[in-house]
Amino acid sequence: LFLLRILTQYPEYQTEAERACHHLINSHLSLIHSMMSAKSNVKQRKIILQLLAVIVSLGGTLPRELLSHLALPPELVKSFVQHTKPTDDQNIRNCFIHFILAFLIEGSVPVIRSLLDKQHLLSSIFPDLIYDSKDIVALILTTLKTYVLHNSNVSKTVKLQIFSIPVIQNLVYLYNWKGPNNWSKHKTQNVMPNSQYHEEKLDRPWEYEKPSNLVIKIMTVCPDLIKSQYILLEPYIEPRVSVKWIIVIKFVREVNNLHFLSYCLMFVT
């Protein structure tokens, strides 16, 4: 709270605050690790994650120093991101998400690159995203769009590594967003999100409005994918009397329009 007030109300004291944080990291790192560990209680873990998020927000050399010295092994990260009480805005998962996103929002290119080099940190927040609040989901998507996807200082190779197939799948699952209030039902029933259902949506996107729009948008920016879409469509376009066939043909028409447009653009450019 004190550091937040310095950031928002007393910027003239930021240099002193940064010095204090450097001292904390250099002299009390073992205490930080202790508070982060699974042996600590929920309150302690929340407090330390919130503190670390604010320290990152102070900027300077602090974010890179944290990334260099802080031990965040996969098992510890997994314990942070698992849902325990999603209806609580200050749950451990949310605190960890704010901590990780703070490195991106800080905006420094070296810091962003350092975070992206530790791929498991950012990728850890995507599973079970469908049970996060709409505010958290919006924050994640907006931050990624602004500081990663639209960041010319992040190479295409790194972007492809970050947005791996599992990450993309979890983003697509958001079409079936459940929200925090449905997590308890999911836990009680002890079931995983119906991945087969989601995969079906991508295998036959024309049968579902939002996936259909998504695929069309993808092909709009990547016309090279149109050919593969035709191959996928081939088994479904044999004439038959059914509503599903009509839906397929409408989708084919949209793909044809894209194909024609991309063909015309070849001559324009």
Give a brief outline of the structure.
It comes from Habropoda laboriosa. Residues 3-185, 204-246 form the URB1 N-terminal domain. The chain is built from 17 helices and no strands.
Structure description:
- It is a single chain.
- With 269 residues, the chain is mainly α.
- The chain has a domain at 202-268.
- Helix content is 68%, strand content 0%.
- The chain has helices at 2-8, 14-27, 29-36, 42-57, 62-69, 74-81, 92-105, 109-117, 119-123, 134-149, 156-162, 165-172, 183-189, 195-203, 209-221, 226-233, 243-268.
- The longest helix has 26 residues, at 243-268.
- The model has no long low-confidence stretch (mean pLDDT 86).
Considering the chains and any ligands shown, give keywords for the structure.
elongated; single chain; 269 residues; mainly alpha
Number of strands: 0
**How are helices and strands ordered from N to C?**
HHHHHHHHHHHHHHHHH
Kindly provide the radius of gyration, computed on alpha-carbon positions and rounded to a whole number of angstroms. Answer: 23 Å
Major β-sheet annotation: none
- Helix-strand makeup class: mainly alpha
Low-confidence stretches: none
How much of the residues is beta strand, in percent? under 5%
Q: If you average the pLDDT, what whole number results?
A: 86
Report the end-to-end length measured between terminal Cα atoms: 56 Å
Give the helix level as a range of percent: 55-70%
Morphology: elongated
With helices defined by DSSP (H or I, 4 residues minimum), what is the helix count? 17
Organism: Habropoda laboriosa
Protein name: Nucleolar pre-ribosomal-associated protein 1
GO cellular component, one term: nucleolus
Domain URB1 N-terminal: 3-185, 204-246
